[in-house]
Design a protein that fits this description.
Layout: H1 4-17, H2 19-34, H3 37-40, H4 53-89, H5 106-126, H6 128-137, H7 141-146, H8 153-163, H9 168-176, H10 179-187, H11 191-215
Helix pairs in contact: 1-11, 2-4, 2-11, 4-5, 4-11, 5-6, 5-8, 10-11
Length: 220
C-alpha cells in the first residue's frame, strides 16, 4: 500500500525548491506534447462552403496530429517523466532533459510508447472501463523508459502491467485526488494549472512511480 499523502507532501516540498524551473519545464513539455493538436480544434467543416477543402484539411490535421504524437509528443513525454523523477528524488535536472530521448534510444521509445497508445485506444474502443484499465496498467512504461529500463516493445509493456498488479485501484484513487486541482485550474482559465497544479501533479505522479518501484520484486 502506497501512502499518497506522503508522496504529495514530498512533491510539494520538491516543487517549492525548484519552483520556477519546474513551472517552465512542465509548461513547455505540455505544449510540446500537445503540439499541433493545439491548433487542430480550429479546423472546422463549413457545410455552406462550395469548396470541400476544409473537410480534407480536417482529415489531414488528424493524421498529422497522430504522427506528431507518436514521433515527437510521446518522446517529449518520456523526457518530462525523467525531469519529474529527478525532481521528486532531489536530483539535478535541466531543460535539456525534455529532449533526452531524441538519441540512440529514440526508436525504442517511439515503439514502446506507440504500443501504449495503440493498446489504450483499443481499450477505449471496447468501452470506457477497459480503456481506463489499459491506460493504468500501461502507465509505468514512460517512467520505466525515463528511468533507463533497457527493455523493448512488448517486454516493457508486460513489465508495466506486472508492476501495476494489485495497484490499479490504488492508482485510480491517486489520480482522482487531483480532481479538485483540475477544477480550480479550469475555473481560473488554466492559471492555477500553469503556476501550480500541473507541476505539482507531474512530480506527484513521478513520486508514485518512484515509491511503487521500491515495492517491486527485485529481478534476478
Amino acid at each position: 500500500m502506497i501512502n499518497r499523502l506522503e508522496i504529495k507532501e514530498r512533491s510539494k516540498v520538491m516543487l517549492s525548491q525548484n519552483y520556477w524551473k519546474l513551472v517552465g519545464i512542465v509548461l513547455l513539455g505540455m505544449i510540446l506534447m500537445a503540439g499541433i493538436s493545439l491548433f487542430n480544434s480550429k479546423v472546422t467543416i463549413d457545410h455552406n462552403s462550395p469548396m470541400g477543402y476544409k473537410i480534407e484539411l480536417s482529415k489531414f490535421m488528424s493524421i498529422l496530429t497522430i504522427a506528431y504524437t507518436i514521433f515527437v509528443g510521446n518522446v517529449i513525454g518520456v523526457g518530462l517523466c525523467k525531469v519529474c523523477l529527478a525532481a521528486y528524488r532531489g536530483e539535478s535536472f535541466e531543460l535539456g532533459d525534455l529532449f533526452a530521448f531524441f538519441n540512440a534510444d529514440y526508436l525504442r521509445v517511439v515503439g514502446a510508447m506507440a504500443l501504449v497508445t495503440l493498446f489504450t485506444a483499443i481499450g477505449y474502443l471496447l468501452l470506457v472501463v477497459p480503456g481506463i484499465i489499459a491506460a493504468i496498467g500501461l502507465s509505468r512504461v514512460a517512467y520505466l523508459l525515463a528511468d533507463g529500463d533497457p527493455r523493448y516493445g512488448m517486454e516493457i509493456i508486460s513489465k508495466s502491467w506486472e508492476i501495476m498488479k494489485g495497484h490499479k485501484n490504488e492508482f485510480f484513487v491517486f489520480i482522482l485526488s487531483f480532481i479538485g486541482w483540475a477544477l480550480l485550474s479550469a475555473i481560473t482559465a488554466g492559471i492555477v494549472g500553469v503556476f501550480y497544479a500541473n507541476p505539482y501533479a507531474y512530480v506527484s505522479f513521478a513520486g508514485y512511480h518512484d515509491e511503487l518501484m521500491k515495492l517491486a520484486p527485485v529481478e534476478g
